[in-house]
C-alpha cells in the first residue's frame, strides 16, 4: 500500500502544491492528468522519493521503480548490465528473460547507443519491471513517441502491469492514455494545485 | 605499399629537424647530432647512473601524480557538486593556481626542510589546483537524470561511483592525468635541481655546471622515452577500452 499525504510544496515563496492525499492499492493504477506546468512532475518526484523538501508525508514500499520521460540509460554499459546493475538480486538469466519479454532478445550485449529509440524505451521499461517493483512511477512515458510506437509501448506496459501487479502512479497529459491504463483517474488543477476526481 | 604508423613518422620528423639544426650549428658542444648521444647514453646506462637517477625521478613523479590526482579529484568533485563549497573555496583555488611553482617549492623547502616530504609536497601543491579545476568542470556537467535514476533504484554508493559517476568523469580524468604527468615531471625536475642529491633534475644541474649538453639531453630524453612508453602501453589502450561504447 502506498499512502501520500502532502500538505504543501513551495518553490521559494511560491506554493506549487496544496493539500494532496491519495492511496494506491497493490495492482491498482492511478492516472493523474493535468495541463503542463501545473506541478505533475513535482508531485511525481515527491512520490518517487526524489524530492524530500515538502510538507507532509509519503509512505512507500522499499521496491520503487520509475520510467522517465526519456529512456535515461547508462550508455557505457550493455543492455543486460543496465538491468543487473539496478537490481543486484537479478541473475543474468532472469535479466535475459526480461529483455526477451520486451522484444530485445539477442540485444543483451548491445550498448544503448546501438539500439533504436523504440528499443531504448523498451529497455527502460524492462529495467523498471525487472525488480518486481511494489510501486511503479511512470512520468509521461509515451510522450514524444509516434502513434505506432506509443501503441506498442502501451500494450507492453499493460501486459507487464497485469502480470506483476505493482501499485502504479501514471502521470500524463493525454486523457486517452489515462483512460486506457488508469483504474482510477484524477486531475491536478488550480494554483496551488490540488487533486480532484477527473476524467 | 604498407602504411607507416603516424606516430613513428612524426617522431622521425622531429629527429630530422634536430639533425638539420645540429649540422647547421656544426658545434657538438652546443648541439650534438642524435647519433652522438648513443655512445655516452650506453655508458650512462652501463654504469648504472642513468637507471639510478631515472628511478628516483620516476618514484617522485608517481607519488606526486597519485596524490595530486586523488586530492584534486575529491576536491574538484566536491566543488562541482556543492555550490556553497565552490563559492568558499574558489578564491583559494585562484590563489594557488597563480602561485608560481618556484615560490611553492622554495617555501616548502624552507618550511619543511630539504627532504623528500618537502619535495613531493611542493609538487603536489603545484598540481592539485589544475586537477581540481578540470574535475570540477566534469562534476558540474554530471547528468541530473542519471542522479535521479541512481536514487530511485537505490544504487549503493560504490556501485554509483563506479558505473554512473566515473564513466561520466572519464574524459575529464584522462585530460587531467595527461596534462598532469607532463607538468608534474617538469616541476619534479625543478625540485630536484634546487634541493635533492639524486634524480634527473640533479644530474641536469650537474651537467649544466659542466656545460655538457650531450648528457643534459640524454637525461632529459630518457624520461621522455619512458613517458612515451607509458602513453602507448598504458594510457591509450585504457582509453580505447573505456571509450568502446562511444564507437560501438
Automatic annotation (TrEMBL), chain A:
Pfam families: ABC_tran (PF00005)
Gene3D superfamilies, per database record: P-loop containing nucleotide triphosphate hydrolases
UniProt GO molecular function: ATP binding; ATP hydrolysis activity
Keyword Aminoacyl-tRNA synthetase found: no
Protein keywords: ATP-binding, Nucleotide-binding, Transport
Domain (ABC transporter) ranges: 2-199
Domain of life: Bacteria
PANTHER family: ALIPHATIC SULFONATES IMPORT ATP-BINDING PROTEIN SSUB 2, TAURINE IMPORT ATP-BINDING PROTEIN-RELATED
Protein family membership: Belongs to the ABC transporter superfamily.
Name of the molecule in the record: ABC transporter ATP-binding protein
Natural source organism: Mangrovicoccus algicola
Source lineage: Bacteria, Pseudomonadati, Pseudomonadota, Alphaproteobacteria, Rhodobacterales
From TrEMBL, chain B:
GO cellular component terms given for this protein: plasma membrane
Stored Pfam families: BPD_transp_1
Protein name in the entry: ABC transporter permease
PROSITE patterns found in the cross-reference section: ABC_TM1
Domain ABC transmembrane type-1: 54-236
One GO biological process term: transmembrane transport
Cellular localization per UniProt: Cell membrane
TM stretches of this protein: 61-80, 92-112, 216-235
Membrane topology listed for this record: Multi-pass membrane protein
Signal sequence bounds: 1-24
Primary location recorded for the protein, binned into one broad class: membrane
Domain of life per record: Bacteria
Family of the protein in this entry: Belongs to the binding-protein-dependent transport system permease family.
Keywords attached to this entry: Cell membrane, Membrane, Signal, Transmembrane, Transmembrane helix, Transport
Amino acid at each position: 500500500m502506498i499512502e501520500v499525504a502532502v500538505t504543501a510544496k513551495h518553490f521559494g515563496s511560491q506554493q506549487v502544491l496544496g493539500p494532496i492525499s491519495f492511496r494506491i492499492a497493490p495492482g491498482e493504477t492511478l492516472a493523474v492528468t493535468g495541463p503542463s506546468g501545473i506541478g505533475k512532475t513535482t508531485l511525481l518526484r515527491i512520490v518517487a522519493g526524489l524530492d524530500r523538501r515538502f510538507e507532509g508525508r509519503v509512505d512507500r514500499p522499499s521496491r520503487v521503480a520509475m520510467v522517465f520521460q526519456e529512456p535515461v540509460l547508462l550508455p557505457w554499459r550493455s543492455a543486460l548490465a543496465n538491468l543487473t546493475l539496478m537490481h543486484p538480486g537479478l541473475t543474468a538469466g532472469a535479466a535475459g528473460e526480461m529483455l526477451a519479454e520486451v522484444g530485445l532478445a539477442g540485444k543483451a550485449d548491445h550498448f544503448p547507443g546501438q539500439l533504436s529509440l523504440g528499443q531504448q524505451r523498451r529497455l527502460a521499461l524492462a529495467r523498471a519491471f525487472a525488480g518486481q517493483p511494489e510501486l511503479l512511477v511512470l512520468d509521461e512515458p509515451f510522450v514524444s513517441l509516434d502513434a505506432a510506437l506509443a501503441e506498442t509501448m502501451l500494450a507492453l506496459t499493460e501486459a507487464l502491469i497485469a502480470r506483476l501487479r505493482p501499485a502504479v502512479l501514471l502521470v500524463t497529459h493525454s486523457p486517452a492514455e489515462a483512460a486506457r491504463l488508469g483504474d482510477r483517474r484524477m486531475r491536478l488543477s488550480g494554483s496551488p494545485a490540488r487533486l480532484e476526481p477527473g476524467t | 605499399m604498407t602504411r607507416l604508423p603516424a606516430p613513428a613518422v612524426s617522431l622521425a620528423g622531429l629527429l630530422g629537424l634536430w639533425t638539420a639544426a645540429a649540422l647547421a650549428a656544426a658545434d657538438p658542444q652546443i648541439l650534438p647530432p642524435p647519433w652522438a648521444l648513443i655512445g655516452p647514453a650506453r655508458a650512462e646506462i652501463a654504469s648504472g647512473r642513468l637507471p639510478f637517477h631515472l628511478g628516483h625521478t620516476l618514484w617522485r613523479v608517481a607519488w606526486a601524480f597519485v596524490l595530486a590526482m586523488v586530492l584534486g579529484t575529491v576536491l574538484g568533485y566536491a566543488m562541482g557538486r556543492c555550490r556553497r563549497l565552490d563559492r568558499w573555496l574558489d578564491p583559494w583555488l585562484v590563489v594557488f593556481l597563480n602561485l608560481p611553482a618556484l615560490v611553492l617549492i622554495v617555501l616548502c623547502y624552507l618550511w619543511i626542510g630539504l627532504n623528500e616530504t618537502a619535495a613531493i609536497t611542493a609538487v603536489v601543491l603545484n598540481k592539485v589546483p589544475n586537477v581540481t579545476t578540470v574535475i570540477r568542470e566534469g562534476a558540474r556537467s554530471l547528468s541530473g537524470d542519471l542522479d535521479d535514476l541512481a536514487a530511485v533504484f537505490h544504487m549503493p554508493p560504490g556501485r554509483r561511483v563506479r558505473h554512473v559517476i566515473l564513466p561520466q568523469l572519464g574524459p575529464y580524468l584522462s585530460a587531467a592525468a595527461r596534462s598532469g604527468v607532463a607538468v608534474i615531471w617538469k616541476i619534479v625536475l625543478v625540485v630536484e635541481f634546487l634541493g635533492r642529491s639524486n634524480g634527473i633534475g640533479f644530474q641536469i644541474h650537474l651537467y649544466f655546471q659542466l656545460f655538457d649538453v650531450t648528457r643534459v639531453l640524454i637525461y632529459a630524453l630518457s624520461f621522455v622515452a619512458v613517458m612515451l612508453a607509458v602513453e602507448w602501453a598504458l594510457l591509450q589502450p585504457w582509453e580505447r577500452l573505456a571509450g568502446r561504447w562511444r564507437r560501438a
